[in-house]
Design brief:
Blueprint (H helix, E strand, L loop, with lengths): L15 E4 L2 E11 L18 E5 L15 E7 L2 E7 L13 E6 L3 E6 L11 E5 L4 E4 L7 E4 L10 E6 L6 E6 L3 E6 L12 E7 L2 E6 L9 E5 L5 E6 L5 E6 L3 E6 L4 E7 L5 E6 L5 E6 L3 E6 L4 E7 L5 E6 L5 E2 L6 E2 L5 E2 L2 E9 L3 E8 H4 L34 E2 L8 E2 L24 H8 L73 E2 L3 E4 L5 E6 L3 E6 L4 E5 L33 E3 L5
Length: about 600
């Protein structure tokens, strides 16, 4: 696949781009931003602009109408947060009548999420995280609900980097912080004011630990997840089934957990710097991450290994997202034959990514790339303490193990492990120990490896390397616990730090968790277009359009190509039906200031 190009200036901002299904066009009348925004202004504020979309169900007894505005959109910019009726590509945006407008003093909103479980035609719960660590729960429609969590910053004083409702739960949400900690809250409990929580160890594994509050009665947070080296948790994402949790951190690691049992089931490592974003494929078979190595990395949940990398961005990848409406499957009569003679449907996943280089890239992940022929040899440089899936404490697979199905640590579906092929010599690199009071080891390591150009775009400049490392610790077991109820479980004894990964963070390189560049398929984007003046910070796919946002606070809508009668859209991938309802009548809107004072 070649990168699509157009005539015109190299830095020209595109208003349309073409894919195999047709032309995507920018809808200038469907632009959402601050009401008083005029033209292009440079990006302001350190907090990235995030976008949340939700579809309201129809009111009881009301017949859905195709003209009804049933979507609500929320976005933040600087110290401001807006909620609008979202009209998609049907009608022009009306910026004069926000459903909710909040201007905060002393803090900035950084992330937010609608609760899809409790939503009604007249109510929706919106959870908001802030740059100073507080969390607010509001109802932008009813305006009667307003709760604060971590108000006095006794739980965590650092920026909330990602916040999401637990899938299927009406009252549990998860918040990640720049401190490298992730907290599970119950919105029905007190917000954590009065006294700082005291924790006790509940479960510990390789590179992470889970704690509960030591208290006579259940309180927030229900659980605290702590990751090695207190590395910033940049983002997390639940799988479509809600059973698994993928977490990416600034130390360059993707960790995938079974959420209820808190078991680590797989890992992947970046080539350079931290992972910044993560998403799941619509069927839950693949996890895609992007980060400071400018690459898009595809990790297979079933095989527990990196299966492909995408190379096309020229700066840090800020958002990755699958397009479930273009992801396709072959017709039954077109099913190809497997080696054992059984029919199998071919898949093609559409992936989107946006970056700080102001470019939108679209990728097609096809069957021939994601499922290459099985290799029969095991890498000669696997650490004795690592399995091919990157999870410590298990032995490398034998030559015949590539075709052996096994259960995952969390009791999931059987999967097949494909070991990596052996490579040649090794490159000796001396890694120093972390100094007291200094930066984590991975930071100095990043500086040491900056000259190796792992993300070099010229094929003849790709470098192969491996390291001979010593075995590193194991994983400690722990009891299972349900995380979807209304109260926390107990158990555990003291301890407040995560179990370290190893003294050598490079031990995953050369394994299935981070294969060398020539051992992994490298993809080029189907489309790569500059679509903004400022760095891009949001990307969402809907049935009739896609939404992007950039650092100057502008939220754009791109109309999809006209859908043919026998279009590629697969109805099986539609996870949430788009029911229609009448728009909620606007109440009197006025300028509101929500003050969350900074507590030193």
């Amino acid at each position: 696949m070649a990168v699509q190009t157009e005539s015109g200036g190299k830095d020209e901002v595109k208003t349309q781009f073409v894919t195999r299904e047709g032309a995507y066009r920018l809808m200038t009348l469907s632009e959402y931003s601050r009401p008083n925004r005029v033209g292009y202004t440079g990006g302001s504020g350190a907090s990235p602009v995030r976008v949340s979309l939700v579809t309201l169900p129809p009111a009881p007894g009301v017949t859905p109408s195709s003209d009804a505005a049933d979507d609500r959109i929320c976005f933040n910019h600087g110290k401001e947060l807006y909620v609008y009726v979202y009209r998609g590509v049907k009608k022009a945006a009306d910026l004069t009548k926000p459903v909710e407008k909040k201007i905060y003093k002393g803090t900035n909103p950084t992330c937010h999420d609608f609760n899809a479980v409790t939503i009604t035609s007249e109510s929706v719960s919106l959870i908001i995280g802030f740059s100073t660590g507080q969390i607010q729960l509001i109802d932008p429609i009813k305006k009667e609900l307003s709760k604060l969590y971590n108000e006095e910053r006794l739980i965590d004083k650092t920026r909330v980097t990602c916040i999401k409702w637990v899938p299927g739960s009406s009252n549990l949400f998860v918040a990640a912080h720049a401190s490298g900690q992730l907290y599970v809250y119950n919105e029905e409990l007190a917000g954590g004011a009065g006294a700082a929580p005291h924790y006790q160890l509940f479960k510990q594994g390789e590179g992470y630990s889970v704690h509960t509050c030591r208290a006579k009665s259940t309180r927030n947070p229900l659980y605290r997840w702590l990751f090695a080296d207190n590395s910033c948790v940049n983002e997390f994402a639940f799988s479509p089934c809600g059973a698994n949790l993928a977490v990416v951190t600034q130390d360059g690691l993707l960790r995938v957990f079974h959420y209820d049992t808190m078991e680590l089931v797989g890992r992947a490592r970046s080539y350079f710097g931290g992972f910044l974003c993560v998403c799941w494929s619509p069927d839950g078979k693949y996890v895609v991450v992007g980060g400071e190595d400018d690459l898009v990395t595809v990790w297979s949940f079933g095989e527990r290994r990196v299966v492909a990398r995408g190379q096309g961005h020229r700066s840090w990848v800020s958002v990755v997202a699958f397009d479930p409406y273009v992801t396709s499957f072959t017709d039954p009569e077109e099913k190809r034959e497997k080696r054992d003679g059984e029919p199998e449907a071919a898949h093609c996943y559409r992936l989107g990514s946006v970056s700080q280089d102001t470019q939108l890239c679209l990728w097609d992940l096809t069957e021939d790339v994601l499922r290459p022929p099985v290799r029969t040899r095991v890498s000669a440089h696997l650490s004795p303490a690592l399995s091919p899936n990157g999870v410590p404490g298990t032995k490398p697979l034998a030559r015949t193990a590539a075709k052996t199905a096994r259960k995952s640590d969390a009791g999931g579906d059987a999967s097949t492990i494909k070991p990596t092929k052996p490579t040649g010599g090794t490159l000796g690199i001396t890694v120093g120990k972390k100094e007291e009071g200094g930066a984590p080891l991975v930071n100095s390591l990043t500086q040491r490896l900056a000259g190796f150009s792992f993300g070099e775009r010229k094929p003849d400049h790709r470098r192969n390397f491996s390291l001979n490392v010593k075995p590193g610790g194991g994983a400690a077991g722990g009891g299972s616990v349900a995380l979807r109820g209304r109260s926390a479980g107990g158990g555990g004894s003291g301890g407040s730090t995560a179990s370290g990964d190893s003294s050598d963070p490079l031990r995953l390189i050369g394994t299935a968790a981070c294969p060398r560049f020539d051992e992994c398929p490298v993809l080029e984007p189907l489309v790569c277009k500059k679509i903004a003046h400022e760095r891009l910070t949001a990307l969402l796919f809907r049935a009739d359009y896609l939404v992007t946002a950039c650092a100057d606070g502008c939220v754009n809508t791109w109309a999809r190509p006209a859908r043919p009668h026998n279009g590629d859209v697969n109805p099986q991938t539609h996870t949430h039906p788009h029911s229609l309802s009448h728009p909620h009548p606007h109440a009197h809107h006025h300028r509101r200031f929500d003050r969350i004072d900074l507590v030193d």
